[in-house]
């Protein structure tokens, strides 16, 4: 694991029952049953990472799961990533999977002008099945983000996929198919006929990515546009994924462009 920096909004403190991770009253987690020596080591290491890039390899091996948890929460980020103070732009290409009307294509074109050399692909599923989404996963060799509009009144954003370094779209398709099956989407999902919200949400997510956020890495956020409810779920690698086993595993970096 490469060098990381700690988000200054997060704190790591010793607790009677283990290790306390928090960034305010609504973001607090307790890691129980850690030896006191490990708690002390992680508290000191995290404080150092708030000032300068720190190497997770300097910690005991037993703390590797805790470090991964801190990264998934956004409390730790790779030191090479941009920050809100030093953002970098990403050239975004849009790939629509399924039918898409003029309103949708116009909204996406306005949010993401066609680049000469894309660094990120926004995959927009409209009327394609999960099987078709899994088939596309094998073709995408660079970082990509899913905007799923196939559920009629629901906008789903994520996961962000780094091929070979995270769960992929086929993993999502396999897990979703096991749970809900793979019925054909509506011929014209409602969220594609009034696509301004979906396009704006995707543009906001890319802006957060340009500021160094990895909030959508292996994560899906959904918004039901009629009921105004939202959910967030983790996307884990799937044992039956037809794509991931063939990909070379290893570190990957996003092709950032300087502003």
Automatic annotation (TrEMBL):
It comes from the Bacteria. Gene3D superfamilies: NAD(P)-binding Rossmann-like Domain. This is Bacteriocin biosynthesis cyclodehydratase domain-containing protein. It comes from Prauserella shujinwangii. The lineage of its organism: Bacteria, Bacillati, Actinomycetota, Actinomycetes, Pseudonocardiales.
């Amino acid at each position: 694991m490469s060098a990381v920096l700690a988000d200054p909004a997060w704190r790591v403190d010793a607790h009677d029952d283990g290790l306390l991770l928090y960034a305010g009253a609504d973001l607090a987690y307790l890691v129980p049953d850690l030896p006191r020596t490990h708690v002390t080591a992680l508290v000191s290491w995290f404080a150092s990472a708030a000032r300068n890039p720190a190497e997770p390899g300097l910690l005991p091996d037993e703390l590797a799961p805790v470090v991964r948890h801190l990264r998934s929460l956004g409390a730790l980020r790779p030191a090479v990533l941009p920050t809100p103070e030093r953002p970098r732009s990403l050239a975004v290409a849009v790939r629509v999977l399924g039918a898409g009307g003029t309103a949708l294509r116009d909204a996406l074109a306005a949010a993401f002008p066609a680049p000469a050399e894309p660094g990120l692909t926004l995959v927009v599923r409209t009327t394609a099945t999960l099987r078709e989404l899994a088939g596309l996963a094998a073709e995408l060799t660079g970082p990509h983000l899913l905007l799923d509009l196939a559920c009629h009144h629901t906008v789903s954003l994520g996961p962000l996929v780094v091929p070979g370094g995270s769960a992929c779209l086929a993993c999502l398709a396999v897990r979703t198919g096991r749970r809900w099956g793979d019925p054909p989407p509506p011929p014209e999902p409602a969220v594609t006929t009034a696509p301004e919200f979906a396009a704006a949400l995707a543009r906001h997510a890319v802006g957060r990515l340009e500021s160094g956020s990895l909030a959508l890495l292996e994560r899906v956020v959904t918004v039901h546009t009629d009921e105004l409810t939202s959910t967030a779920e983790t996307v884990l690698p799937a044992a039956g994924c037809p794509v991931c086993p063939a990909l070379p595993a290893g570190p990957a970096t996003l092709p950032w462009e300087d502003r």
